[in-house]
Amino acid sequence: MRALLAANGGKMPEKEARQKMHLSKSQFSQLLAAMQGDIAAKPYHLDKRQKILQIK
User: Fold this and answer.
1) Are the C-beta atoms of 40 and 53 separated by less than 8 Å?
2) What is the pLDDT of residues 12-51, one digit of tens each?
3) How far are the Cα atoms of 4, 29, 44, 49 from residue 55, in angstroms, in the given order?
4) Could you tell me how far CA 35 lies from the centroid of its own chain?
5) Which residues make beta-bridge pairs with 54?
6) Whole-angstrom Cα distance, residue 6 to residue 3?
7) Whole-prediction pTM value?
8) 3-state class (DSSP) for residue 33
9) What are the angstrom distances between the C-alpha of 47 and each of 10, 26, 35, 44, 50?
């Protein structure tokens, strides 16, 4: 996941990252929890329902 974010400039929408990795929502959630120290999930400023993943 870290390489995917780095290839996209360090930021990426959560939904797009999940689709590129071909993971279910629950699997992706578990992956995010495991990488909590490396990756931050913040609300998108234009639409608070979406999240943006960012390398810390």
Assistant:
1) yes
2) 999 999 999 999 999 999 999 999 889 999 999 999 999 9
3) 10, 16, 15, 20
4) 10
5) 11, 40
6) 5
7) 0.83
8) helix
9) 19, 22, 24, 5, 6
